[in-house]
Structures are given as C-alpha cells and as structure tokens.
Fold this protein.
Amino acid sequence: MVKPSDIFQCQMCGDCCRGYGGTFVNEREIQRISEYLKTDTKTFLSDYCTLSGGRPLIKTSESGYCIFWDKVCTIHKVKPRMCRVWPFIEAILIDPSNWSVIKSMCPGIRTDVSAKELTACVRQVLQEYEREERELFKPST
C-alpha cells in the first residue's frame, strides 16, 4: 500500500496557504485556535475570519496568503483539519484527477500513482485524522 510520505513531501513553500476559499473552521477548531491565540472565540471570529456561505473562513492577507502564514504557519500546533490533512482531502475521493490539479500548485506531490492506490491512501489519512480527533476529545469518565 502507498503511504502518504510516498506521494507527498511538504516543501514548506506555503503555496497551499495562498488563495481564497479553502480554510473553513468548525467550532472545535475555533475554540482551539482561540485558546492558542489567547483570545475569546467571538474576537477570533471577528478579527481572523470572514463568513462564506454562512460558515467561518480564515481570512487571507493582502498578499493572498492565509493571515496565519509568515514564512511558516504561525498556528501550526492548532491548525484546522483542512491544513492538517492537506493534500489528502475528500475532493480526491470524489475525483482522483483532483490530485493532478493540486499538483499544479504543490511541488511536493507525486502523481505517478494509480487512482486506486491514491484513494486508498487518502482514505487512510482521513480515517487516521478522525481517530486521533476522537482520542483527543474523548469525554473523560
């Protein structure tokens, strides 16, 4: 089976942090990032997010990068799910050719893998992320 590291090696270029329209945040992520920034969720939403389709989306700066990008991710420890799983996103499961589209923006992606291997790898990454989240936020007994 293809491992994530077989087909993606982050180059730390920040290209995935550029552009509008991708980093939605949910309540858990809003809480986590707010705590990390030592602010309340209301302030986080007003200062760092905009609404898109009624959902909070992390703002971009005038440079076109995520407002938390400064040659590195300044909220790396608490970055949202979309950023954590990148480039292993659900869009690949819908249409594996999306991997080639992402490759055009990301120098760390290899495309010499079959659609079957690719989708299996993406499923594995997403399942692992969900398992880690459940463990992290398991109610204490």
